[in-house]
Amino acid sequence: MDRPSWDEYFMQITKLVATRSTCLRRQVGALLVKEKNIMATGYNGVPTGITHCDVTGCLREQLNVPSGERHELCRGLHAEQNAIIQAARHGANIEGSTLYCTDSPCIICSKMLINAGIREVIFDRGYPDKLSLEMLTEAGINYRQYTGEEK
Fold first, then answer.
1. Is there a catalytic annotation at residue 138?
2. Could you give the angle at the alpha carbon of 147 between the alpha carbons of 144 and 151, nearest 5°?
3. Catalytic one among 80, 95, 134, 150?
4. Predicted confidence band of residue 150 (pLDDT cuts 50, 70, 90)
C-alpha cells in the first residue's frame, strides 16, 4: 500500500480547501495542524455576508495593484488569516502548530503567524514577498517549500 507522507496528505488537503476560494486572481488554501490533527482551515475570500468578487469585480484588478503589494487594497482575507480566525472562533489552541498552505505567506500573514505562535510553515508555491520570509526567519519559525519528495 502506497500511503502519502504526512506532508503530502496535508498539502493535498490545502488544495481541496483552496477550491472554496472566491478570489478571482489566486485560489489559496491553508491548514493549521498540531500533532497531526487539523485544528483549522481557511481559504481566501471576502468576509462572511459580503458580496463575492465574482459579482463586484476584483478591486486589485480595477486598481492595477501588482501581486505581492498593497495587501490592504482587497475586499478579501487571506487563507492564513481565515484559518487563524476559524481557530479563534472555535477555541482551538494553535500555538505550536504547523501551517500548510498552497502559497507562501505575505508579510501581513507572517506577522499574524508569528504572534499566533506558529512553529513551522510549509507551502507549495512561492509568493513575491521577500520580507515575509525574512521575518519568519528572524522569529525562528522554520519554513520550507514543499517539493513532494518526502515519504
1. no
2. 105
3. 80
4. low
Dihedral-angle region of residue 49 (phi above 0 means left; psi in -120 to 50 means alpha; beta otherwise):
left
Question: Alpha carbon of 93 to those of 38, 45, 84, 86: distances in Å?
Answer: 11, 23, 10, 11
The three three-digit cell numbers of residue 96, written as one number = 505550536
Dihedral sign, Cα of residue 15, residue 17, residue 19, residue 21: negative
- Give the tens place of pLDDT for each residue, 15-43: 999 999 999 989 999 999 999 999 999 99
Q: Looking at this protein, which amino acid is placed at residue 134?
A: E
**What is the rounded CA–CA span in Å between residue 87 and residue 82?**
9
- Number of CB atoms found within 10 A of residue 81's CB: 19
Choose among 78, 1, 12: nearest CA to 46.
Answer: 78
Residues 6 or more apart whose Cβ sits within 8 Å of residue 137: 143
Rg (CA), the chain: 15
For residue 71, the one-letter residue type is H
Q: Where are the beta strands (DSSP E) in the chain?
A: 29-34, 37-43, 98-103, 120-125, 142-145
| Eight-state DSSP code of residue 31 | E
Task: Determine if the pTM surpasses 0.85.
Answer: yes
DSSP symbol at 147: -
